[in-house]
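Open question from group meeting: does this chain pack into something compact, or does most of it stay loose? Before anyone orders reagents, we agreed to write out a predicted structure and look at it together. Recording both the input and the output here so the notebook holds the full record.
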Amino acid sequence: MGRALLSHFLVLSQSSTRFTPSPSLSAFGTKYTKPHSLFPLNRSSTGNSSRCCCGISLTEPAAAPERPPSSIKQRIVSGVQPTGSIHLGNYLGAIKNWISLQDTYDTLFFIVDLHAITLPYDTQQLHKATRDTAAIYLACGVDTSKASVFVQSHVRAHVELMWLLSSATPIGWLNRMIQFKEKSRKAGDENVGVALLTYPVLMASDILLYQSDFVPVGEDQKQHLELTRELAERVNYLYGGRKWKKLGGRGGVIFKVPEPLIPPAGARVMSLTDGLSKMSKSAPSDQSRINLLDPKDVIANKIKRCKTDSFPGLEFDNPERPECNNLLTIYQLVSGKGKEDVKQECENMNWGSFKILLTDALVDHLHPIQVRYNEIISDPAFLDEVLADGARKASSIADVTVNNLYQAMGFFRR
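Structure tokens returned:
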């Protein structure tokens, strides 16, 4: 989820891509047993307060978790911001993986439009981009008979819960967020809104609102999920258990503490102009990314001009060849081939031959998505109904969570 939740995930059914949770979940938080605990975020012994200790591996995923002996599906939530064009990194790192998840899990996929206003934005563009993003979700294969698709701002409980969580969030936790430091430094203090500082609390609200079991995360979002887990533990300690029961509630924990999930490949699709930078909507050059709706000639031109190197042959995992590794990974993911198959196919190729191969694979993979997108976006009534139905389903879950927290926090409810 830029700040896409999660971008983006777990254990999938037999023939599907496998995703796995972190083997070291205890690194995210502590069990709060001391009444005067300061509830700090975990830090390394060196004092680096922004270090994430989540223990997630991209190359050696942990063993699959055992599913509980219940017919109730575990829940996953994720979303993408409606800012800029949805690009290959959003798709391969998040959206493409949702298709398998929806068969195994209770899934909610939403357009995180409230996150899109933390920096200056075009109001007309926000409206259009929100609908476009929803249409792309469906065009990529999200099935509304299996997953709920909705717009974040259409479920008011997101903002409501954010305010309640804000009262329990130490300001020091937010000041340590790396993205806030980076973006505020670029924008300048006078131009930075409060929302840029507090959006991790909204992100926590997005996750905790639906009692999520798993959250798909990319490398750049691990710190935010760490904060979410810490905040869930903090609220459970402050207001849950017997304290909640004395107020007439069911007692116990108020929030599930979600576990992180990350795909073993494709979690970070890199820029076409810099193999060390993540493909991003905010990059100034459109040449740095492949947008899902780019026509064939644009894709061909971007691949033709993308950054390469002068080494002979092609290979994965050479730290001196980040662009080579990135382009091979993209080809592997869009072609559906295994890493070894791609290695054998491409190891003796020159860049000219490989770029033609990659372009054809990208065009073939994206063409049916683009056709389906055009069909969906030309039927606004259908799209409106999908989003309205998704918001109704999401609200039925979210309202229970918010009402429980109001009760646990001692509010007089009508």
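Observations to bring back to the group:
The first strand starts at residue 20 and ends at 21.
Residues 1-69 have pLDDT under 50 and may be disordered.
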